[in-house]
Amino acid sequence: MSQSQQRLAQISSQLSSSVSPPQSARDAILSKNPDDIVITLSMRTALTKARGGALSSTSLEDLLVAILKGVKERSKLDPALLEEIVFGNVLEPRANYISRGATLAAGFPDTTATSIASRWCSSGLLATQAVANQIASNCIDIGLAVGVECMSQNPDDGAPKFGPQISNHPVAKDLTMPMGWTSENLSADYGISREIQDEWAAESSQKAEKAQKAGWVDDEIYAITTTFVDPKTKESKTVVANRDDGVRYGTTKEGLGKIRKAFPQWAPSTTTGGNASQITDGAAALLMMRRSTAEKLGQPIIGKYVASTVAGLPPRIMGAGPTIAVPKLLAKVGLSRDDVDIWEINEAFGSVLVHCVKTLGIDREKVNPRGGAIAIGHPLGCTGARQIVTALSELKRTGKKIAVTSMCVGTGMGMAGLIVSEQ
Amino acid sequence: MLEFRTQGYNGYSVKYSPFFDSRIAVATSANFGLVGNGRLYVLGLTANGIVAEKWFDTQDSLLDTAWSESHENQILAASGDGSIKLFDISLDQFPIQQWSEHSKEVFSVHWNLVNKETFLSSSWDGTIKMWNPNMPTSLVTLPTHSCTYSAQFSPHSPTLLSAVSSDSHLRIFDLRTPASASNHLVMSIPIHTPPKMRMGAAPAMGLPPSEALTHDWNKYRDTVIATGGVDRIIRTFDIRASGQGPMAVLPGHEYAVRKVSWSPHLADVLLSASYDMTCRVWTDGSAMGAKAEPGNPMAFGGGREMGRMGVHTEFATGVDWCLFGAEGWCASTGWDERVLIWDVRAMMGP
After folding, report:
1. Is the pLDDT score of A39 beyond 80?
2. What InterPro entries does the record tag this protein with (chain B) (predicted)?
3. Where are the domains of chain B?
């Protein structure tokens, strides 16, 4: 190259450099940096009914071993490189024992540490946050977040018997009340009718039906072969859990309108078995590492964890949690609600869904595009991670980028997280 | 605003004389410096506007200039052919001294402001050289192994010098240290490092490394250096805390930043010239009561743009403050064949 050509090349490289600073918070969040926390594998089991579903005879131990083997198989990551697995779980009192044991039994070496993350319905997201924070602060390089719940094996017995300090406290005493009571409080305080809850619940089922029939959810699900014991005949047989069996095809608002009130004792008694989340078994897993690590190992980057936050509110209206957690999250990352392409908001109850979507002022079309917990179920510890799995799959299908996942948290909290798809 | 046309020559650098408030030198090149001659203008500011008191033509393009700090008539020119020329403006035509050690384009020359006896040059050949105008060969050669667009002596210490290069690093050399293996290099700061995370603030965004084109030592705070380059961002660093990342990040220019220059009058104010054709004035946020710029996610440290001059119609390449008189006068030059003399205060917003 002649000298003048070299000079020209130098000046044009100074002008056309690919380096351009992000101009908005959205650009900044979409930019790729070596120290980003990325998700390289996102998968879940089928969500199946705690009564009679394909996983309903599967113990927590067996469910964990199965999904951990799935992670090993699908990620093709050397198991020795996985430094910690954080399990989000709510109901199993001995989860510490079972998770450590299942990790070893699934074929991970004894060098892979385990821990538990528990904050009711946000446990799966809390586990994800814990792994991301450990990677960001350089405690570990590679971690796995798992959300898991066997509601068929671990029934929710509610609050323990409190002493006088809690039971006489004007706010804390509400913790003894069941979740259904909080749903009715929400309906009463904000005037949410039975009719609109049934309408939105039916829509959730219709969206789930459409997504299932079109095969959109297939890439979320890792099929598990397990043993199913028929509760009536006590016959056991081998089944493959590969589809969400809670989805009721042909659900209509009118059909849901005929279902009897679940909580006639608490006015306005708008909640029914049809417009509330189902009791379900399931597990979800997210493999996370720094972008630089993923590139070094050749792991496929499917998304990026950006941020998450939590906020508290009175326990008696715990269902409004997302209405305070989401604005807090968006303020932290500098995004507006219009920057978000998909919202995964946990449908703990129809009242929660209606109240949160209306209060946040978000486009209903973008909320739970594949249906939510009313349609496919709400395995408590699993949901936080499951919503990320669903959001990443839907972002991939639609070619969109940014998803917010949020859920109300029993005892009066809300959690929200932001992820970006890079598929 | 006063204007002078460098007809047929595109401006590369402009410098006020340290001795006279009415004398300005401009390094220019024909054909945008890609091929052809160079010309060093010595301009006088008179009651009748700007007049060319003298000019020197050179074989190759001229990319930078620096006035001697010890002799009012002597001036250096950095040439595209790798040579450095010393002219005496009381003489005609030819340089009184010439040095040809660099193997590629010389991008910057800078006179030692403290001992006034030595000067620096930096080059595309990946070296910085220190010279004494009375010596035929360079005194020291400092390798950077990377095209070095800008080298400067500290205005506070005769033995401390700095450079920025295309490898996105700010290097500090201290000539008091033994040469040994490190060639006097005492510090190498990656310019692209994001600011350190602070509690309660959103984490700063990282940017990939990019060519650094210019830098300048603060005239009041002896450890503060501003840098600019291809990533369009101006940053300030405190060399006492080199591991902390930038103190201030000032985004705003839409193309590469070609020149930054701290005010000789105010410790927090600097000027910049960019390929986006604007010259902008900034505060780095270190002054009391500085208001941070809201909105831009890259901004850090509380600094902000205070005003801009958008009269140039091609790349703005050089800008320099007048050292005398009312604070705020400056000169700029660019590829539009113009030298503009203007008052920064007239460009500042409310």
Report:
1. yes
2. PEX7, WD40/YVTN_repeat-like_dom_sf, WD40_repeat_dom_sf, WD40_rpt
3. 2-347
